[in-house]
Amino acid sequence: MPKLRSARERADLINTYANRLSHRGDEARALHWYEQATQADPAWAVPWFNIGLVHKYRGEWAQSLAANRQALESDGGHEGACWNLGIAATALRDWPSAREAWRRYGIPLPEGEGPIEIEGSLGAVRIDPEGNAEVVWCDRIDPARGRIRNVPFPGSGHRYADIVLHDGAANGKRRIGENEYLVFDELELWQASPYSTFEAWIATPAPELLSTLAERIHRGGGQIEDWTQSVRYICKACSEGDPDQAHDHPAVGDSSDTRWIGLAAVEESMVRAAIDDWLGEHPEASLVEFRRSLAAGVTD
């Protein structure tokens, strides 16, 4: 076997082996060999970045932050390390480090200290990516956080107005009209919202009249979604790609008069009152079932 000509060559060989272990899901051994690569060539940023990457996906934020800092000491222009440093710092509420990372990446930030609040653009996030994998719309707060605008399915464990920490690598896309949005996978629930999720099954021969129920819910500070109408079920390949350019999926419809409604509110009494008032105005409709399906999160 020919002798390696440099420390970088040896580090590259070890790093490649660690990559294979990581792709197979053997994270513990991958970390060991990434660390060996850093010892072979301490000035090389790549294995430090990879160590930070493994810790990021394990939710080990302090370790991820430290590894990405080390990568940036070796290569101050490493964009991936900048971004993942920003994510780790945001997870840790380390706002000076988060601001440093985003500015270093080239993202303009408002002046100030503490939590970052950027006037939000719309974004798409895949919540519960290892479980039921539901894509929701969010108001972007900063490069790594979004506040959920939808009423997610209760099985996702997420609520309207939850703040989620998400990855920076896009994993699919969605469109609204002519506008295209990248989809980012959730990394963790960053802050639970004070809203509970409720489900209602409402029988009505005129589902278009539910728009007036929505107005009542919105006036009460809540959110509502007709899951019978708005939800689109697609396969994993399309979800992580471009669902508008992929193969067709069977339509999921409901030929009955019963609509499955998701609601979000801080107080159940508001939802109950809004539904009761609406039913009083529409005697042809009826409430088949109502329940609270996900309690509000615990907030600081």
UniProtKB/TrEMBL annotation:
<protein>
    <submittedName>
        <fullName>Tetratricopeptide repeat protein</fullName>
    </submittedName>
</protein>
<dbReference type="InterPro" id="IPR011990">
    <property type="entry name" value="TPR-like_helical_dom_sf"/>
</dbReference>
